[in-house]
Amino acid sequence: MGMLTTGREIADLLRQEFGEKYKLVLKLSDPKDKSSYDDILNLRAQLRNYVAHGSFGKDGSTFQFHSRVGAVSLKILDHDARLEFSFGTHSVRDWEDDYARIDSFLNRLWSGNREHAK
Fold first, then answer.
1. From residue 88, how far is each of 58, 75, 76, 98, 99 by CA, in Å?
2. Euclidean distance between CA atoms 42 and 67, whole angstroms
3. Nearest 10 degrees: Cα torsion 97, 71, 77, 92
4. Is the full-model pTM beyond 0.85?
5. How far apart are the C-alpha atoms of 66 and 52, rounded to whole Å?
């Protein structure tokens, strides 16, 4: 987009958070860019934060810890108030929808005046 002119500026940007990088590329005043940005941040929070890093779910029902084999999901409370726990993910994902959302974001990212950068 022509906003960075030196290698130092690019190196500094690479250390920034996900959102800061994309705010530099997407025009959040454009409703389509904003919608695409919001959707990919939402998907990122659903997948990366809870699956890769482990955390309590919003309803307090899941916890994940890291072992030698990676993150392990542990469901502590069940939604129907049974006092059981189980290992595994806490919900079924529609992976095809997730892939479509990523594809939609990438199509938006490389559209318009950003297309030449691809």
1. 17, 7, 11, 19, 22
2. 27
3. 20
4. no
5. 9
**Sheet (strand 86-87) strand order:** 62-67, 70-75, 86-87
The token duo for 53 is 């890093």
Residues in the chain, pLDDT under 70: 48-92
Tell me the three-class secondary structure of 15-64, residue by residue: CCCHHHHHHHHCCCCCHHHHHHHHHHHHHHHHHHHHHHCCCCCCCCCEEE
Q: Report the chain's C-alpha Rg in angstroms.
A: 19
